[in-house]
From TrEMBL:
Residues 20-128 form the PTS EIIA type-1 domain. It is found in: Cytoplasm. This is PTS system N-acetylglucosamine-specific IIA component, Glc family. The lineage of its organism: Bacteria, Bacillati, Actinomycetota, Actinomycetes, Mycobacteriales. Keywords: Kinase, Phosphotransferase system, Sugar transport, Transferase, Transport. One of its GO terms (molecular function) is kinase activity. It comes from Tsukamurella pulmonis.
Amino acid sequence: MTEVLAPVAGRLLPLSAVPDEVFAGEMVGSGVAIEPSVPADGAEAVVVAPVTGTVLKLHPHAAIILASDGVGVLVHIGIDTVNLNGEGFTLLAAEKATVSAGDPLISFSPSVIRDRGLSAICPVVVMDSQPGSITNLEERDVATGDVIFTV
């Protein structure tokens, strides 16, 4: 079993809460979403690796970490944020790097995303998993690094 950690602090929600039919419909895989909180000090939020593994893909708005057991976890920062062309995001890791769960990957400003009229919600998806395979979600506030589900 692989424990998947909250990559960012915020409100844990079902994927159906994501305003994007691909994620909400679990077409990429099953998982959860986190509506990120804005740090009280106005600093940027930091997305951390949800599992220990290799950074398979890293973009300003998304990362995929492949765990040693073959589980791939996608963290997508916001919806349609690819259109920001990296504005408001800073990469803190590199593709092909080995990371431990909790290592920083990307920093971003939820406020910049929301100020552009976009959703800052962050889907956390087990790649290629069956729809509905992540169950027993309890909506709650989570801190970065809290266990949010197991695979």
